[in-house]
Amino acid sequence: MKLVVCVNHVPDTATRVKVGSDGKTIDPAGVTYIINPYDEYAVEEALKVKEKAGSGEVIVLSLGGDSNKETIRKALAMGADSGILLKDDQPRDSMDVAKALAEEIKNQGVQLVFMGKQSVDYDNSIVGQLTAEMLNYNCVPVCVKLEIDGEKIIAEREIEGGREVIETSLPCIITCQKGLNEPRYASLKGIMAAKKKTIEEKTITTTTSVTEVVKMELPVGKQPGRIIGSDSSAVPELVRLLKEEAKVI
Amino acid sequence: MANKILVILEQRDGQIKKSGFEAASTAVNLAKELNTIAEAVVIGDSISNINDVSKYGIKKLTHLKNADLANYSSSGYTDSIVGFAKDDYSFFILSNTALGKDLAPRLSVRLNAACVVDCIKLNVSGNEITLSRPIYAGKALVDVKFLGEKKVVTLRPNVFKAQISEDSSPAEIIVKEITEVNLRSRVTSIKKSEGKLDVAEADIIVSGGRGMKGPENFHLIEELAEVLGAAVGASRAVVDAGWRPHSEQVGQTGKTVSPSLYVACGISGAIQHLAGMSSSKYIVTINKDKDAPIFSVADYGITGDLFEIIPALTAEIKKVK
């Protein structure tokens, strides 16, 4: 079976975000970019499905600038077979990203697609569902357990205070959550092999964004508060403040 | 009227959730500003608190009813709403919950609408709406505007108030039986975490970090959470160490939360954690290291031994409650 894994190239979660000169995007100076953490679970799951089937092909798909190739290589080093970069430097909203991904997934004729449950930059968590709906595929978002038996899929996804058990079928997009698996580390051999794997580049030019970011800003910083004490004798005063000043208990 | 607002109320176990009423109230207020009408829809089998929508100023609610829709089905819910709402509404409001985040984007594709999720503020100026939403788990905020007519929006729970409306005359409730349900994708069961509140929805959260020294000490956190009626949260370090489940993780690769009160115990405050919780209204920290970054966002702090302080706090709260 041919599988697609969509990966995104994002600022490291340790980044101190600064607003760029356009007032709308992050200042990239000094920022380290990594594979989106949730996408590692997606790559791992795709590799597991291929290994279980005993054959198949895992294609890594990413949309963005040239630097996204680093993230594609990372997935190739973990064991994916080949990469496709949808090359584009335009800002795009989720709908626009989903359109480009859906088109390429259709081109590849792929029935099972994995991606992270959200990208840790814009935190939209909707690209998987959008792409699925455009393709008329099923979708299991925020997946923490997956069993595939032929065409049939039984999956669990995280909801507030528990998990939903979902029955659905191929074709399907799975968006992956921490807990689904333990992503493997790329071995030295894997890293060497990744250098020889192909990354096909396709330039996309049309944008059809339906939303626009007009301003980006940093949240108003909090004033540091009060240290009430250094042992349990401070507890009554803390409780009084919570009750009378903050009025939260 | 083709530009009406439709608020999609979420029900679980036959009860409309609090976040649903927050969305209803927000929709009613927004409709006033935009000089239009807000109506509501709920999907499910029987719904016990359906009449409560009247309190929040909703005048018309449609109940799309079928026993197979008691539990969520992405295909069933999407088809039902699209069939019902196609031409009459231009603005759709949902809650940014697991269900809302799944349903909203699907609707936006089918209704040819733009989708903006996890909004914490709606600004209306004339006929133009801008939405504020956190990005990078709250390290930054963006204002987003729509380029098209049709809009789907999800609201972060606990941010918008469910205000009792001055005009709370009974809403007209229309039950519409759905005869054919598309169950291509369906929820067969729900595995509930035992009796626990979820951090994403809780009004108070008590979180533990590495300072708790081991999973065996988390009963202290659970006991404090119990007396406060709070959810238990955790730092990434303790989730990665396997002490706590990932569903409790607060921060950039966990959940971003905005409760009224966040109590951080033995959490030093890595940048990813601070991003996920610093928009809480009040933050209390108990930590022996007075230089820990968590103190920079805390309203009240006690520096000291949490194994002594947490039980004392639990006992004191029991006394005053």
Explain what this protein looks like in three dimensions:
The N and C termini of chain A lie far apart (56 Å). Chain A contains 6 helices and 13 strands. Chain A has helices spanning 37-53, 68-78, 94-108, 127-135, 188-196, 235-245; strands at residues 2-6, 9-11, 33-35, 57-64, 82-87, 112-116, 138-149, 152-159, 162-169, 172-176, 199-203, 211-217, 226-229. Chain A is globular. The longest helix of chain A is centred in the N-terminal third of the chain and has 17 residues, at 37-53. Chain A has one domain (2-203): Rossmann fold. Chain B is of the alpha/beta class. Chain B is built from 7 helices and 18 strands. Chain B has helices at 18-34, 74-85, 98-110, 219-228, 236-240, 271-277, 306-320; strands spanning 4-9, 11-12, 15-16, 38-44, 60-65, 89-95, 114-119, 121-125, 128-135, 140-146, 151-155, 172-177, 186-192, 204-208, 231-234, 261-265, 282-287, 300-303. Chain B is elongated, with a radius of gyration of 21 Å. The N and C termini of chain B lie far apart (50 Å).
What attributes does this structure have?
heterodimer; A: 249 residues; nine-stranded mixed beta sheet; two-stranded antiparallel sheet; 6 helices; globular; B: 321 residues; alpha/beta; Rossmann fold; 2 domains; 7 helices; 18 strands; elongated
Quick recap of the structure?
With 249 residues, chain A is of the alpha/beta class.
Topology order of chain B in helix (H) and strand (E) letters: EEEHEEHEHEEEEEEEEHEHEHEEH
| CATH superfamily label of the largest domain in chain B | HUPs
- H/E order of the elements of chain A? EEEHEHEHEHEEEEHEEEH
% residues in beta strands of chain B: 25-35%
Give a quick account of the main beta sheet of chain B: strands, pairing sense, barrel closure: 7 strands, parallel
Radius of gyration of chain A: 21 Å
Shape annotation of chain B? elongated
CATH architecture verdict of the largest domain in chain B: 3-Layer(aba) Sandwich
Query: Helical region count of chain A?
Result: 6
Q: Please tally the β strands of chain A and state the result.
A: 13
Unreliable runs of chain B: none
CATH topology-level name of chain A:
Rossmann fold
Biggest sheet of chain B: strands side by side, in what order? 7-11-6-1-4-5-12
- Report the total helices of chain B: 7
What summary fits the major beta sheet of chain A?
A: 9 strands, mixed
Structural class of chain B: alpha/beta
Rg of chain B (C-alpha, Å): 21 Å
Domain module tally of chain A:
1
Total strand segments of chain B: 18
Helical content of chain A stands at 25-40%
CATH top level class name of chain A: Alpha Beta
